[in-house]
Specification:
Layout: H1 18-44, H2 51-77, H3 81-92, H4 120-131, E1 136-139, E2 147-151, E3 157-161, H5 163-171, H6 173-188, H7 200-225, H8 231-271, H9 273-287, H10 292-295, H11 299-307, H12 312-343, H13 348-365, H14 367-383, H15 397-422, H16 460-468, E4 473-474, E5 523-537, H17 540-551, E6 554-557, E7 562-565, E8 573-579, E9 582-592, E10 596-607, E11 613-630, E12 633-650
Parallel strand pairs: 1-3
Antiparallel strand pairs: 2-3, 4-12, 5-6, 5-12, 6-7, 7-8, 8-9, 9-10, 10-11, 11-12
Helix pairs in contact: 1-2, 1-8, 2-7, 2-8, 4-6, 5-6, 6-8, 6-9, 7-8, 8-9, 8-12, 8-16, 9-11, 12-13, 12-15, 12-16, 13-15, 13-16, 14-15
Length: about 650
């Protein structure tokens, strides 16, 4: 499409296109995003037994992925502009000026014209066509926002005007025109495809607090209330998810703010700073209420930037807003990674050194910093503000020199950070972050390529700690360690039977009338009552939950001495000894996935007789082990719960 001359970007100063850089970095993340999503889907399939903790951990991982899906939606929205246009116009009631609901009323009989008010739509349309030919106007009677730009199709653009701007048009037409010019400022850089009405970027900011409450607070609270033994480990993942909220929003908000400040500058250059300031003060409160304050800069900040657009301070803010947000992700990631490592069992000293090493490596390892440096280097050449021509008049040289200094600072920030990342300043702790774990966990040593931090818009420290959250062991190569190949992707070994489980002995009397156990075919029972449920490892709520599941079970004692239940969580129990009316049984079952192994052990004492009821005492233990290889590093975890439950069974229907 060939844009009209009025829409072509002029060779004038302005912030770099950080919004588009954010989208470009997302595209580079897509392969890792797909792989991570597949791993999370496996964890979401485990909801019972020890898998409940892994299920909640998978939900938390999904929360961390949601911002990436919103950014992916922003990319996909570029491909279907017409669908977005239809959705936006239905939602906001946007109609063409000649629609019967929006058309001006017919002039009253005897009047020379229809008055001044009915002509505002025609005046707005003429103004848009004069500055951006082909732009179409749409009107809505809704309040809350003044005007927004959005794509009408692959080659058309529409500006939605709402009731507050119509009122401003009749009270301060210059300020209202400045609002329209602000929207055209977005149009000049093609930002209507990523921002404006129906933008997934702004949708991310609007729904993120509700996603956080629904997918983090509720499941984690449930996990603690039910007493799952993995809750303490899951807390490490909770820390990382809570830390990821401002970390993710920082980059998106900075990109949106940079675009808004650039559009304000365009409007001020075309309509005058005073008109833009009046428009901001008149419409800012309604336009930026609630969560809209996040995807629009504060009104006070915008007023100061418009009023002092030529100063070095404002130019530095506009140019470095996004790089500074990218840099701010590092301390946020460190603040989340340190407590996560400590919760997983690492000492404070090793956790601190590990976090510093990860943050240091992420500087040079993130493509975001290299891309930022590239944009900062190219942008002065694209705008023509990076140099001071020899024929520049002396009166204009100070302003041109300020522009050159601003762009030099924009280049200097990422260049210095990349240089720091390339220097060997922060080595990892020798033997790995968990080498001095008192539990004596050991894992094979693994190495990591220098500078192999996170990618795209995610800080390396948070990404790596996030991969290890919920795990209780990590392998790492220290300074001077012998390099080895990456560990292979394989499920962990089957867990060992927990030590110290109580053993049953024969001799308890039958709750029925006693006498020998009858034979002559299989015998079927149902759980009549739960006599007791006590925790051996874990919390009482867990034992009670197991008892509740067994309350509705049906049992079959076969001729071969095996006892089976209709619950998948109960392994087939095989008789080990029979003493009169007492039968001792044992059994185990292991379930495996690509990254985990969960074993359930169960010992039982069945006291039978000729009566209709029997007594079943159970000792049950479940151990879940997880092993994952992330970025050539091995992470392992394990958790065990155990209960003792006594049931009364009946052979009556």
């Amino acid at each position: 499409m060939r844009w009209p001359a009025s829409l072509r970007p002029a060779r004038s100063w302005g912030p770099p296109p950080w919004l588009w850089l954010t989208l470009a970095l997302l595209l580079a993340q897509l392969p890792a995003l797909i792989g991570h999503t597949l791993d999370v889907s496996k964890g979401l399939g485990q909801v019972g037994e020890a898998g409940r903790g892994r299920f909640v951990t998978a939900v938390l991982s999904l929360v961390q992925l949601l911002p990436q899906f919103f950014l992916l939606a922003a990319v996909l929205a570029l491909l279907v502009p017409r669908a977005r246009c239809r959705r936006v116009e239905r939602r906001y009631g946007l109609l063409a000026p000649d629609d019967p609901l929006m058309a001006p009323p017919a002039p009253a009989s005897g009047s020379r014209d229809g008055g001044a008010d009915p002509h505002f739509a025609a005046a707005m349309t003429a103004f848009l066509q004069a500055h951006a030919p082909g732009t179409r106007l749409r009107l809505s009677t809704q309040d809350g926002i003044s005007a927004r730009v959005y794509p009408g199709g692959g080659r058309t653009v529409r500006v939605g005007v709402f009731a507050p701007l119509v009122h401003l048009w009749h009270t301060d037409i210059d300020a209202a025109r400045a609002v329209l010019l602000h929207e055209l400022g977005h149009l000049r850089k093609g930002e209507q495809h990523a921002t404006g009405l129906g933008s997934p970027f702004t949708a991310l900011v609007r729904v993120w607090p509700y996603v956080l409450a629904g997918l983090v607070v509720l499941p984690v609270t449930l996990l603690f209330v039910t007493g799952d033994a993995t809750a303490s480990l899951t807390l490490a993942e909770v820390v990382l998810v809570l830390e990821s909220v401002p970390k993710v929003l920082l980059l998106v908000v900075a990109a949106l703010w940079s675009a808004e400040l650039g559009a304000d500058r365009f409007a001020a250059r075309a309509a005058g700073a005073d008109a833009v300031v009046r428009a901001l003060r008149s419409l800012g409160k309604g336009d930026h209420g609630g969560l809209a304050r996040l995807y629009h800069p504060p009104v006070g900040m915008r007023v100061r930037c418009v009023s002092r657009a030529g100063t070095t301070r404002v130019r530095l803010l506009s140019t470095l807003l996004w790089p500074l947000a990218l840099f701010a992700q590092l301390p946020l990631a460190m603040l989340g990674a340190f407590p996560a490592y400590v919760l997983l069992g690492a000492s404070a000293d090793r956790a601190g050194r590990q976090v510093l090493a990860l943050a240091h490596e992420s500087l040079a390892g993130q493509p975001a910093w290299w891309a930022t440096l590239a944009v900062a280097l190219v942008w002065p050449l694209a705008t023509g503000e990076g140099r001071v021509p020899r024929d520049t008049p002396m009166t204009e040289r100070p302003g041109a020199a300020r522009s050159a200094a601003v762009h030099a600072a924009a280049v200097l920030l990422p260049a210095v950070l990349l240089l720091v990342g390339l220097l060997p300043l922060a080595p990892r702790p020798v033997g790995g972050v968990f080498a001095d774990d008192p539990a004596g966990r050991t894992t094979p040593a693994a190495t990591r390529a220098p500078g192999g931090g996170g990618t795209g818009t995610d800080a390396g420290a948070g990404a790596e700690a996030g991969a290890g959250a919920g795990n209780s062991g990590e392998a790492g190569a220290g300074v001077g360690a012998t390099p080895t190949a990456c560990p292979g992707r394989a499920a962990p070994r089957d867990p060992s039977r927990p030590p110290g489980l109580p053993a049953f002995t024969a001799g308890n009397p039958s709750p029925s009338a006693g006498g020998p156990d009858r034979s002559g075919g299989p015998r079927t029972f149902r759980t009549l009552a739960v006599v007791s449920a006590d925790p051996l490892s874990g919390m009482r709520a867990q034992a009670q939950e197991v008892a509740e599941r067994l309350r509705g079970a049906r049992w079959t004692l076969r001729d071969d001495g095996t006892l089976a239940a209709d619950l998948a969580e109960v392994p087939v129990l095989r008789t080990t000894s029979v003493d009169g009316t007492t039968r001792l049984l044992t059994g185990e079952r292991t379930r495996r996935t690509d990254v985990s192994a969960t074993t359930t052990w169960m010992d039982a004492r069945l006291v039978t007789g000729t009566g209709p009821t029997v007594r079943l005492d159970l000792v049950r233990a479940v151990t879940g082990a997880t092993r994952a290889v992330v970025d050539c590093r091995e992470f392992t975890s394990s958790s065990t719960t155990a209960q003792r439950v006594s049931l009364t069974l009946s052979d009556r229907p």
